Amino acid sequence: MKYIIAEAISQELIAGSNGEKLVYARVLEASSPKHAAITEMFDKSPISYFLEMGQYLANFLKLDTPLVFVTDWSDATELVGLRLESSARTVDYPNLCFLAFYTDWDNLNNSSITELFAHEFSHVWLSWMGYDFNNSLEPV
């Protein structure tokens, strides 16, 4: 499955063009050491199996949105709403569910990405199938 690895520009939400709240991230180029480290982790761990399962589901659902992983976040979570900046352009995805992970670049294993990946990716799968995460919020 083709996926995008990005790094958070800020953990503060920004306003999109229609006022929606977005996380702001920048695509990591394939030549980036961070991109290489994350890709190697994905390829050499059970994450590769979950990516393959996700590909099957995405193909079945005929999805055309990107699968995005955002590094340098405070905690592992799924989020909805992303502004994604690349060298070519910046695109807002107000309804995109994506994965954000805490990333300890000195010791990636300390980041717990491999342990939390399946759980967080399952939230993305639910989003792909139309689940509204607002239904899960506890009343205040």
Q: Brief description of this entry?
A:
The protein is of the alpha/beta class. The protein contains 3 helices and 5 strands. Strands 1-2-4-5-3 form a 5-stranded mixed β-barrel.
Could you explain how this protein is built, in words?
This protein is α/β, with parallel strands linked by helices and 140 residues long. The protein has one domain. It has three helices and five strands, in the order E-E-H-H-E-E-E-H. The chain has helices at residues 33-43, 47-61, 113-128, and strands at residues 4-15, 21-27, 68-71, 77-85, 90-100. Strand 1 (4-15) and strand 2 (21-27) form a beta hairpin. Helix 2 packs parallel to helix 3 (113-128).
Descriptors:
alpha/beta, 140 residues, 3 helices, globular, five-stranded mixed beta barrel
Low-confidence stretches: none
Q: Kindly report the spatial arrangement of strands forming the biggest sheet.
A: 1-2-4-5-3
Secondary-structure content class:
alpha/beta
The first-to-last residue Cα distance is: 39 Å
Summarize the biggest pleated sheet: 5 strands, mixed, barrel
- Helical residue percent? 25-40%
Q: How many separate helices?
A: 3
Query: What percent strand?
Result: 25-35%
SSE order, one letter for each helix or strand: EEHHEEEH
Number of domains: 1
Q: Overall 3D geometry?
A: globular
Radius of gyration from the alpha-carbon trace, in angstroms? 15 Å
- Give a count of the beta strands, DSSP E runs of length 2 or more: 5
pLDDT averaged over residues = 90
